[in-house]
Structures are given as C-alpha cells and as structure tokens.
Amino acid sequence: MDMAYVAAFLGGLLVFFATHLFSAFRRRDGQGIVGAFGAGPYKGLYSLLTLAGFIALVWGYANIKPWILLADPPSFMRHIAMALMIPAMILIVAAYVPTGFIKKAVKHPMLTAVKIWALAHLLVNWDVGSLILFGSFLAFGVIDRIAAKKRGDLGAAEATPNVLGDLISLAVGLALYGVLVYELHYILFGIDLYA
Questions:
Q1: What is the CA radius of gyration of the chain?
Q2: Where are the alpha helices (DSSP H) in the chain?
Q3: Which of 4, 5, 46, 70 is spaced 20 to 30 Å from 55 by Cα?
Q4: Are 6 and 68 in contact (CB under 8 A)?
Q5: What tens digit of pLDDT does each residue of 47-83 get?
Q6: Are the C-beta atoms of residues 89 and 156 closer than 8 Å to each other?
C-alpha cells in the first residue's frame, strides 16, 4: 500500500476536524479570531482548509479501503445500516428547510444525521480505515453537540414549527435515500448496495 494515501487520509482527517472543532469551541463575542481578522477572511480560510482536508481524506480513504480488515460484519448489519440511513437522510434535509416539528424536536438535525450516518457505516465497515473515518465523524458529532449545548445554542428548539417543513423533510429525504441507495452510492463510492 502506498503510504502517501494513508498520509493524505490521516492528514485530511486532521485538518478537516481541526477546523470544525476550532469552530465549535471558538469565541463568539467578537473578541476572538473572527473579530481580529473579520468575518469574510475567517470564513474564506475556514472554507479553504475544510475543503482541502475533505478532498485529502476522501482521496486517501478511497485508495486505502479496506485498510487492515479486522473481520467481515454479519449480514444482518447491512439491513440495520440501511434502516438507519432513512432518518439520517430525512434529518439532513430537515436541517435546510423551514422549521417543522422534526427540526424542533431534534434541535440540531445535521449533527444528529451525521451521528446516525457514521454509526450506520461503522456497523458494516470493519476495517481500521473505516473505523478511523466513521468513528471520527461519530465522535465529532457528539463533541460538537456538547459544545453547542455548552454555549447555549438551542438550534431550532425555540422556533415555531410548521407542518410544511416536516412534509418537505420527509418527501425529499425519502427521495434522496432512494436515489442514493439505487444509483448514487455506486456512482460516487463504487459500492453497490444491492450487489
């Protein structure tokens, strides 16, 4: 195995999560780095570093998988993972649509979706590379949720919900799930979920 792929994977993970963890715990009173450099330059640098880290980790992971296979997961894990991805897709959509009862109840639907997505993938990928990748996302989701709670970020908890947000989340989330399962997962990741 080419160690350059491993270095890209691990380095990309480090950069990607360093930027996200910095953002989760940075000062929000205007006195920190955003106040010193300005919102525009901060967002530009944050986006550039995050994108570079993401590209490196995806490229590295794609070229090392499976990295140090530990065992083959039982076949029933696949069904659990597929089921978990349904609420994950609905919550991803809920994060970007008008607040519905789903968004209000979950408060931070994107973080919850990331945690469910990571757990689902940990259930079916039992190699060291996957444990590092999906375990990192799961750990980040937990840490970021704790950070949000600590800084008093209630997400959508105080918003007035409407049914339209829920209907959009359900419809688009289920459609996204169907497209991902039957088409995009193979096109994007080379893994046919129905092979």
A1: 18
A2: 3-25, 33-37, 39-64, 76-94, 101-106, 109-124, 128-150, 163-179, 185-189
A3: 70
A4: no
A5: 999 999 999 999 999 899 888 899 999 999 999 999 9
A6: no
